[in-house]
Every structure is written in structure tokens, then in C-alpha cells.
Amino acid sequence: MKLHQSKVGNLNQFTSYGEDFVEVNRQRHQGPVLVSGEQVLPWSARSLESLAPADIEAILALNPEVVLIGTGKHLRFGHPQRYAALSAARIGVDFLDNGALCRTFNILSAEGRQVVAAVLYA
């Protein structure tokens, strides 16, 4: 699905998404990625069930105040132990399907929030 583009300064914005990709500023990314207002990085995570401490450390390195975890086409929830380090750092965590993640990220980043999108597909 293509999203309505409203570029906010030099911040990253999701411009499209599908079952196996997201587009950030019209550049397609397949596979897990971390997206902040300034960066798009490959992410070592492969699934919600296999989130490891190193996957969460990669998120923490981006200094977010809010983390949106995309769970693919359908909404699923991760086990709290898998993301306990985010909660301990007082970082908000929300699970969304990837379409909702893209829309929510665009809104929060346009508001100037330090948001990180962690995109998975399964």
C-alpha cells in the first residue's frame, strides 16, 4: 500500500509497504530493518519469538523514547521478557501490524518524537 507523502524536514518517512517490504523515502527495504528519523539500518532479528539481547541493544543504541515493533501482516504480541531492557530503560513499546506501524511512525516522527520502528515480517 502506498502512503500519502508529507516530507517533514530531512526525517525518514515510510512511503509504502507490502507483505515483504517497506519503503522509506521511496527506497525499498526487504528483510528486518530499524528505522529512526535519521537512519535506516538492517536488523539482525528474524522473528518476534527469537528476539535476542543483541537485537534489543541495536534498538537502544538509537536512543528512542518510543519503539514500534512491526509484526508483519497481522498483529502479534511479543513476550515481555524479550523486550524487558526497553521497559527497564523507560522506553515505550508498542506492537503493531506493519501497516499501522508505518502510519504511526510517520505521525510520531512528524511530531518530533524520538521514535524507532523495528520491522519484522513474520
Automatic annotation (TrEMBL):
<dbReference type="Pfam" id="PF04430">
    <property type="entry name" value="DUF498"/>
</dbReference>
<dbReference type="InterPro" id="IPR036748">
    <property type="entry name" value="MTH938-like_sf"/>
</dbReference>
<protein>
    <submittedName>
        <fullName>Mth938-like domain-containing protein</fullName>
    </submittedName>
</protein>
<dbReference type="InterPro" id="IPR007523">
    <property type="entry name" value="NDUFAF3/AAMDC"/>
</dbReference>
